[in-house]
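for the record, two folds in this file. i put them one after another cuz i was lazy. first one right below, seq on top, structure tokens after. the second one comes after a little note so u can tell where it starts
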Amino acid sequence: MSNEIFGNRVSRFAAWKAGLAYKLCKKFFGEQKEPLDLVAVAKGEVYKDFKVLTLVRREDLDAQKDDDGKQLKVHEIDPNNALVIGTIRMGFGHWRIAIALASVAASMNVRAYILDFLSFTNTPIARSIKFLEGLYNTFSRLSQKSKWFNNHIWEDVTSRANATLDSAIQNREISRLFMGAFKNLPKNIPLVAAHPWVGWSALHCGMTNVVSMVPDNLPLAFWLVQGSLHTVQSPSAYMGYRALLKMERGYDIKKCLPASDIIQTGHYVDYELLSSIKADCKARLDRAKRGEPRRFLLTMGGAGAQAHKFGDIARYCKEYIRQKNCALLINMGDHEGRWQVLKELLEQSMIPYTLHTDWKKTKAFAKDAETSHVTGVHIFLHKDFYAAVYCTNLLMRVCDFMVTKPSELSFYPIPKLFIQRVGRHEAWGAIRGSEIGDGTKEAEEHNMLHRILTMIIEEDDLLKMQVQNILNNDKIGIYNGGYNVVQAALRQK
């Protein structure tokens, strides 16, 4: 096993530890030795919206059925004018980034295939991802309940523990478990990886055109995949990853990431949002002029860690909601259990709400909200994973502020109020948003959050400032990252 990466040494202990992690995962979950025989089907809402084909196993007939149980036509993978978008679907962020790329690819008439590790049911690939996702979700929720755990454990795990080159070595070894997903893919088809395990696995199998999308502004070696082209969303991320900033452990770093291995693309944003920036910003200002209720979109993350925070916001805004000075649109994703927590909090505070669970009606609500008044509290909960994630994208266009932890949503062109992060790596999302002026600083404490909410509801200056900054950012291409990633993948071919 090599103990070098990007020409820099890591300790023999680090290399041994990476090998041990691989062996333990292999022992618990197994290894996908046999190649997956993948074919494509036109399946689900992601196909209806973006003509994206989903990769499934040829022998998995259940995966080849539509929502009504009808057997779908199977298509062979065609590498011409096409790319594969690979994701592990751990949390919402990786999937949202994949959707953004699919949206952009559709607008460019490029055929996109979605390869989702978690969809290969009853395989070592899916079992391992499911287990690790469960651990991540549990610890994320605990970090929001326990200040001690968050400050002394989770902040370190989500930053320093993933910062050094050791973590890239570990990902390189663990990804060997997933190689079966790529052994039969055309070696020259562009692959855009929304997670490093996807990128490493593809390179292990001899794929020649791999693009690694880096979501974090905080430089973390966790995201580095040697042999791929890395894309980052901001200048500070470019410098940090290019210089392998603070990624040493044991040995000094002698070499930087080659300039040919990294590009700054801008923010990864869907075509639908990007093409509507001017109209959506105008609508926000028009609603403010008319004195309509300030619309807040509250978004639950994939780990479901914000239920109590949302309950606190609703309780604080209760009188504003009653007087029709603000409205809350809360996307709970697919978190039925977390909705029960929030539901109890709302009922304890005697706050009425409307629950939306039908995807067609949710889309109709978002469309109608473009021209109609929105009041009260609206809860959105969808069992389908795509709907759970994409609901936020639909509601972004018709809301005035998005209230979110500084995750992948930090980079979207909507005014943002950042609440407490879930992991230290997310802090730099809020820094990016506040510096380019389309988001606030991170409001970690209740008093600070309440004060900002009052200011936003009662006055218009912060809204107007963020709207103008979004328009300025749009002019210089800050939100064009999705296009630049797709174009880079096609050029690499």
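(here's the note) second protein begins now
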Amino acid sequence: MHEKHYLCGSMDISLSGHYGYRRLAVSSVPSILMMLVGSIYSVVDGIFVSNFVGTTAFAALNIIWPAVMIIGALGLMVGTGGSAIVSITMGQRDYARANRYFSMLIRFTLLLSVIFMIPLLVFMEPLARALGAEGETLRQCVIYGRICTVGLPAFMLQMCFQSFYMTAEKPQLGTALSIACAVTNMVLDALFIIVFKWGLAGAAAASMLACCVGGFYPLWYFHNRRNRSSLKLVPARFEKKVLSRASSNGLSEYVGNISFNILAICYNLQLLKMMGENGVAAYSVLLYFGYIFAAIFIGYNITVTPIIGFNYGSENTAELKSLLRHSVTLLLVLGAIMTLVSELAAGPAARLFVGYDPELCDLTKHAIRLYMLSFFIAGINLFTSAWFTGLGNGKVSAIVAFIRNLVFELGFVFLLPAILGPDGIWLAVDAADLCCLILGTALILGYRKTYGY
């Protein structure tokens, strides 16, 4: 019998046992903090670049970053899909096999990062041109993109490990590493951008060096003999079936992530055409603001996905029903609170990033207030994908993510501006989330008999 318990406040952090509202909320705090801190240090990058380098550099960062992120998100795919498989295996009490799977998935992530690094370095300039960058914006895109590409192994490992801290029953480690990464990034941003005057190159270097903390330290930690977590890095050969299952199971998170970045590219193209650089800058601010809010939902899903997998592996259908009911209620309450906060904080957020330009500041505040209405139900839609990932059904999970982003939202990005003008761009995500809520509800209800919840 293998049981370990780690305290978070007065609550044990483990995959087994009953999860009511309080235990779910308390157990998710470390993962939510991990994602929040990670999103905040991305936001700090934007603040430094916008205020100390300029609007052109700020626009360039946000034009090229989605393309880099499409590759980097492979780490997220392997981590989320793999953590569900590892937790299901732990639920079956086969811990030796779970460690082999974990080790194989980490090595696979590192291999993927090396494979994609060279082509991305070589084709960065034509890629930036294809995304609409020209002149000085193009030059800045290439600089930022190439530096980020050099840091791809650390970045992808960091994304992969984030999904395993809860599975290892050590979510506090993820929080501590996120704080360490954030402090590293902020200090280096100030040093490279303000003191050394390295501009956008300094922002890229600061981000990638911070990723080294989050990506390479866990390699040492899980290799260390004194590691007392539920997971350890051990010798393991690649097993095609397991890698395929992990990749397909995590496909929804990858589809969701690349869809988000493809959408960002389409938003930028539409905004460049309708509003110029100001439109891209405003969209960049609301995305940073949205990252912070979405981090709460993502942190919750990172917590609950291995718990779902563990109980599915243990055939504990009563606990699955409870997890579904409690999660939906918690996420609706969180969504209502976050929507209210976003409406109140739109003005201060706009001034923080672009207060130097009154016209751009007003545009940004208006965009945030329309765009962030979606957060009332966005948590439920993100949870729907996580629910099916935890059950090992990557196909349905990916369908939800794909339809939400690349069918509903992408369609509305081009349809609504033709009907409503520029406001249609900001309202596209609201319309997409409403349609996705209907789809997700139908799928969860439709699969009740299959999984017994």
